[in-house]
Specification:
The chain has about 250 residues and is an alpha/beta fold. It contains 8 helices and 17 strands. Strands 2-1-3-6-7 form a 5-stranded parallel beta sheet, with helices on both faces. The protein has a 5-stranded antiparallel beta sheet with strand order 12-11-10-14-13. A 3-stranded antiparallel beta sheet has the order 15-16-17, with no helix packed on it. A hairpin with a 2-residue loop joins strand 13 and strand 14. The longest helix has 14 residues.
C-alpha cells in the first residue's frame, strides 16, 4: 500500500512538529509532504502537492480552515480537523460525520483517524459533509438541522425532523424515517441518543429512541408502550415511564 500523503496546516510550529513526531513514531504509513502556517500558503501547497489527507487547524491568522476549504472546493482530499473549538462546534462535527481531533492531539486518536482515512480515500463525499457542517454551525433551528448517516453503500443527508425513531441492533442503529425508508448505520444507539436528545428525541427503552413529534399516544395498560404516527409500536421501560409522561406534558 502506498503511504498516505499528508499536508499539515497549523499556524503554530510546535503543533506541526508534534504531529510530525507522532506520525513518525506511530504511523509509518504516513508521509508528510508539506506544512503550511496560514491559508494562503496552504492553498498553494495543496494545489501543487495533491495530498490524500490534510490535517487542518480551524483558527489561523488570516481566516479559518473553512475559508480555506471553500476556496478549494470541490475537495479531492480527506480532511481531519484539529480543533480546540467549543462543545457546539464539536456537536456540529458529529452531526456532519466529519473527522476531528481535539487539542492536545492524542497519538492513538490520530492513528485511528488516519486508519479510517485510508479506508475512505476516494470513497466518500467530503463536500456534502462540509456543507452539512456549515449549515449546522450557522445556528439553524431544529427544523433545519441535518445529520449525515453513512452506510457501506451510501451517504445520506437527513433532516432530523424526518427521523421517526431509532432502534438498537447490536453495534448498529436502525433509523426509521417518515418516508418509510430505513437506514442501518454503524454506531451504538447511545451515541445517537447523546446527539439527538437535545432536539426533541427521547430514549424510551434501552433499544429505542423516538422523535417526540411522531408520538401518537402513550398506552399505559399492560406495560407502557408508544404508538407512533406511522403505526409502529415502541416499548417503554418501567423506569422511563414517568419521565416520558413529563416530557409529553411539556409539548
Amino acid at each position: 500500500m502506498n503511504p498516505i500523503r499528508i499536508i499539515i496546516v497549523d499556524d503554530e510550529k510546535r503543533i506541526r512538529t508534534s504531529l510530525i513526531n507522532i506520525l513518525q513514531l506511530h504511523f509509518p504509513d504516513a508521509k508528510v509532504i508539506a506544512e503550511a502556517e496560514d491559508i494562503q500558503s496552504a492553498i498553494e501547497v495543496i494545489k501543487t502537492q495533491i495530498p490524500d489527507v490534510v490535517l487542518l487547524d480551524i483558527k489561523m491568522p488570516d481566516g479559518t480552515g473553512f475559508d480555506l476549504l471553500m476556496q478549494l472546493a470541490p475537495l479531492t482530499f480527506k480532511v481531519i480537523f484539529i480543533t480546540a473549538f467549543n462543545q457546539f462546534a464539536v456537536q456540529a462535527f458529529k452531526f456532519s460525520a466529519l473527522d476531528y481531533l481535539l487539542k492536545p492531539v492524542i497519538p492513538e486518536e490520530l492513528v485511528n483517524a488516519l486508519q479510517k482515512a485510508q479506508k475512505q480515500i476516494n470513497n466518500e463525499n467530503i463536500n456534502a459533509k462540509l456543507n452539512v457542517f456549515m449549515s449546522n454551525m450557522n445556528g439553524l433551528t431544529r427544523e433545519t438541522k441535518k445529520i449525515v448517516l453513512n452506510t457501506q453503500e451510501s451517504m445520506h443527508v437527513i433532516n432530523i425532523t424526518d427521523i421517526v425513531r431509532c432502534e438498537a441492533d447490536r453495534n448498529y442503529t436502525l433509523f426509521i424515517l417518515a418516508n418509510k425508508k430505513n437506514i442501518l448505520v454503524s454506531g451504538s444507539l447511545k451515541e445517537y441518543d447523546e446527539m439527538l436528545s437535545p432536539y426533541g428525541f427521547f430514549r424510551s427503552h434501552h433499544s429505542h429512541l423516538v422523535n417526540i413529534s411522531f408520538i401518537d399516544r402513550l398506552e399505559k395498560r399492560d406495560g407502557a408502550r408508544l404508538i407512533m404516527k406511522d403505526g409502529s409500536v415502541v416499548l417503554v421501560s418501567t423506569r422511563k415511564k414517568d419521565e416520558l409522561v413529563f416530557a409529553l406534558n411539556g409539548i
